[in-house]
Amino acid sequence: MLSHRLLLTALACLLGIVSANIDFGARDLSARKCIDYPAYPDLYEASFAEITAGLESGLYTSVDLVKAYLARIDEVNLKGPVLRAVIETSPVALAEAAKLDALRKNGTVLGPLHGIPIIVKDNIDTQPEDGMNTTAGSYALVGTITPGDAAVIKGLKKQGAIILAKANLSQWAFWRSSTLLPSGWTSVGGQCTNPYFPFGNPSGSSGGSAICAAIGLSAAALGSDTGGSVIYPSSYQNLVGIRPTIGLVSRTGVVPISEHHDTVGPIARSVTDAAILLNAIAGPDASDNYTLAQPSPVPDYTAGLKKDALKGVRLGVPRNFNNAGWFTSATSTNTGIDTVFEQAIADLEALGATVVEANVTNINDILNGTNVYYIFSSDFRKDLEEYLATLKYVPSGIKNIDDLIDFDNAHPELEEPLTYESQDLFYQSANTSIDDPRYRQTIAYMSLVGKGGIDAALNDNNVTALIFPSPQSTFSAVAGYPQITVPLGFLPPYTAPVQVQNHTVQTYDPFPGLPFGLTFAGTGYSEATLISYAYAFEQATHHRLEKRAYWEAIPKTQIPDVQ
Ligand SMILES: *[C@@H]1O[C@H](CO)[C@@H](O)[C@H](O)[C@H]1NC(C)=O
Ligand SMILES: *[C@@H]1O[C@H](CO)[C@@H](O)[C@H](O)[C@H]1NC(C)=O
Ligand SMILES: *[C@@H]1O[C@H](CO)[C@@H](O)[C@H](O)[C@H]1NC(C)=O
Ligand SMILES: *[C@@H]1O[C@H](CO)[C@@H](O)[C@H](O)[C@H]1NC(C)=O
Ligand SMILES: *[C@@H]1O[C@H](CO)[C@@H](O)[C@H](O)[C@H]1NC(C)=O
Ligand SMILES: *[C@@H]1O[C@H](CO)[C@@H](O)[C@H](O)[C@H]1NC(C)=O
Ligand SMILES: *[C@@H]1O[C@H](CO)[C@@H](O)[C@H](O)[C@H]1NC(C)=O
Ligand SMILES: *[C@@H]1O[C@H](CO)[C@@H](O)[C@H](O)[C@H]1NC(C)=O
Ligand SMILES: CC(=O)N[C@H]1CO[C@H](CO)[C@@H](O)[C@@H]1O
Prior knowledge:
Keywords: Signal. By secondary structure, the protein is α/β, with parallel strands linked by helices.
């Protein structure tokens, strides 16, 4: 049994309260240290600003930071709780950190991300010089040579960020089988799991990125979102996530599903950090012509970070979403989400907002899976082929969806292990053609239904954003419209863990203490507004700080341990 004192220390660590000079006694708890390092940020929670303060004062360097984060990854990725959040770490991150340290010493600071380690989803291209694969979690892409950094990576590096690692995900961003394969599983990285419950579903598809941000394996992360892949894992991991408007962020160099719906978004512990990341990745890119139609100039997404941003604002609650199952995975349990959400409404009102009902009356048409999946299927066939053609070398030799299906079937030991055989969505994609008149018709219809439905709910009720418990992201994704989710609450401890499907590695969803968020959804290019609302709510409530990951999933290494 742990001594009283150790128990107190453990509790203090869990709560993020650090206490001095702990004697761990004879027990071997070297891997469980939690020592007071005054002035050093706790990497579990540290913000960009806190990390930067220590870099500026010379308390530590970016090299120290990279060493500390790598040690934290090592503690939990394949050891301890085996979270499998990271597929590959960067062999050049330390050298990059040293370069950025030298620049800082010389008085050059590239931007607010200078010398800060960020982890990105493994479907985002990194240049060959960085020595990492871009696999989307599939052996069909292991060893490919990309043409260079994805546009979003260039954006991060321009601000001085260090790309620390590539994060695990749901394979092919959950476009292989979303009903028969579990979220967070890839053949290359295995099953990643939620740090809030052993073998909890991380949700996806950007699950690895969210795990990394949730427990401080990096300062923050990037995910990609087609039908909810940033909002879901951000919500499930007690984080802030932004799904930007289609056309705001370039998809150049991102393994695609659908050009009509794919986007890349920030996953961070605070609204401020998410806004800083969005600043780094937003903007036009000639190689992705969807981004050429965006309003100019690109806003500074940190400009509206004001605690009184909700004063005089009208917000709408689409109550009829209850019929569409706004928290589908937990509907069978007595979740208490409704009560927490009603409290959030009261909090928003106390901050000066007026909250009214604003039903999205055609929600069932928006969420009609037949149409959405048809667009995803058709686009995937075309967009995958175009992506593969950009690569300088593909060892598997795949050129299109048919080759990919054949590769998987020819390598069942790699791609189709027991209980992970399905590739039904690939087969669905293989049967589509963008020359089918139904393709253009469905895109036009869904754009009208999606944008029209959300804009009507906003305009008819004179509200600037819709609010509801996260995750319920698909309806915004269908419209190509933005969402931001911010931590709100946790399922009660008595929630019964429910097994997800039947797989070799079992995951659970829901589970006790599963985090959930509050979403703000708006019209196209309303990110700056949504971010300001989320900030005001976050600053008034700080729900993220109410609960930490389970003990084993909290990495113990801090910066002084590597200095
Ligand atoms: C530092 O700045 C000086 C003067 O601008 C330059 O000559 C030198 O190469 C710089 N050193 C590094 C490491 O960037
Ligand atoms: C890519 O993955 C393979 C297999 O895991 C590994 O051998 C290789 O070092 C990785 N990196 C690169 C740049 O190919
Ligand atoms: C982008 O370019 C393609 C090919 O030139 C064209 O078909 C498409 O309409 C353009 N899309 C936008 C949004 O400009
Ligand atoms: C909105 O939806 C809720 C829940 O379905 C329903 O009770 C309410 O009457 C609807 N409001 C309007 C104006 O239709
Ligand atoms: C979904 O859309 C398809 C194709 O437009 C249509 O045939 C089907 O009836 C719709 N389903 C529902 C439940 O509305
Ligand atoms: C088309 O779909 C059918 C039924 O799912 C499947 O048997 C067939 O293999 C698919 N075609 C291709 C080219 O994959
Ligand atoms: C809409 O709401 C704003 C306050 O956010 C108010 O000033 C304005 O008068 C309202 N417009 C209508 C048409 O009700
Ligand atoms: C789970 O899958 C395994 C392997 O396919 C199978 O042997 C077992 O019967 C399944 N169990 C349930 C409860 O479906
Ligand atoms: C960085 C890291 O730990 N990567 C691991 C991810 O998971 C695969 C599969 O277990 C390992 O082979 C990698 O080493």
